[in-house]
Amino acid sequence: MNTTKKRGIYLGAAVVIALLILWGLFRETPVSVETAVSKRGPMIVTVDGEGKTRFRVKRTITAPISGKISRIKLAEGDNIPHDYPITEIDPNPPLQRAPDKYDERPNLYAAKVFSPVSGKVLRVFQKSEGYVSAGTPLVEIGDPAKIEIVVDILSTDAVRIPPGAVMLIETPAATEPVQARVTVIEPQAVTKVSALGVEEQRVNVIGGFLSNAPKFGDNFRVDIRIVVWEAGAVLTIPSSALFRNGEDWNVFVVESGRARQRKIRAGQQNAADTEILEGLNEGETVILHPPNQLTDASKVSVR
Q1: pTM, two decimal places
Q2: Does the pLDDT of residue 4 top 60, yes or no?
Q3: CA dist., res. 119 & res. 121, Å (int)
């Protein structure tokens, strides 16, 4: 093989190698992305909060006179009827002495204390015998059939709640949320300090159960969602697909292996999803959490 021919082979090989190097340097590397498909279905928007149950009817029974009270034998959780004898108070107890057989006789001078209502014993303030003054709290009784839900929320969220809004109460005892309905939004907000030390204006929202309440007691903690908007069939995508471009909402749609930036018009939004009013069709694939290096027409690979 002559020198000229060898030189041509070497030159051709060098050109091929150079082309391969340039292709490796300048070829487009796909951006790895996570995607979701736009779909049509029901959607709700809620105001969420942590609330508690509260017996709507509670009575605190107090000592009618001063004197020595007999031991109250009730315990928290007991159900008692109307006129149940709670205790008695002797306004003129005898001096301290050794007990005798006459101590079992009824004390004709003692004031009997009866329950003015039927219900469940919530608290026993005075469990042991001893001296009490008139007006001393003895027992608190509540009506378990009349229970309500109280949740405090930001005043800015309270204005979004329509009259009679449905409340969804999550409880481990039920497979579906227990439903209640907003009965009162208190007219005055109170200032509270958040866990981050920020002052907030908060309002109590009160609701009543739509059916028999589960076995809640008084002051039980519950997680509550108040429905402020709902629809039966709307087009939605995960909210994490949206990003701002100036004043407009945009998304990246996957078309033929490439990302295409598209302006959309968004409607209602909750913690997970956003309603799409214009700019997308059902079944289109959108990119979630668009990475910074992603641009219009970028090649993508779905992970």
Answers
A1: 0.72
A2: yes
A3: 7
Q: Give the rounded percent of residues in the chain with a pLDDT score beyond 70.
A: 84
DSSP string, 76-101: TT-EE-TT-EEEEEESSPPPS----G
Distance CA 236, CA 267 (A): 9
Q: How would you classify the pairing of strands 248-255 and 243-245?
A: antiparallel
Please give the C-alpha separations between residue 153 and each of 37, 203, 230, 241, 278, in angstroms, as whole numbers: 34, 5, 20, 28, 32
List phi, psi (to 5°) of 110.
Answer: -75, 145
Q: What would the pLDDT profile of 40-53 be if each residue is shown by its tens digit?
A: 999 999 999 999 99
User: Strand order of the sheet with strand 58-62?
Assistant: 58-62, 137-142, 119-124, 79-80
Give the count of alpha carbons within 13 A of 121, CB side only.
Answer: 20
Q: How far is CA 95 from the centre of its chain?
A: 58
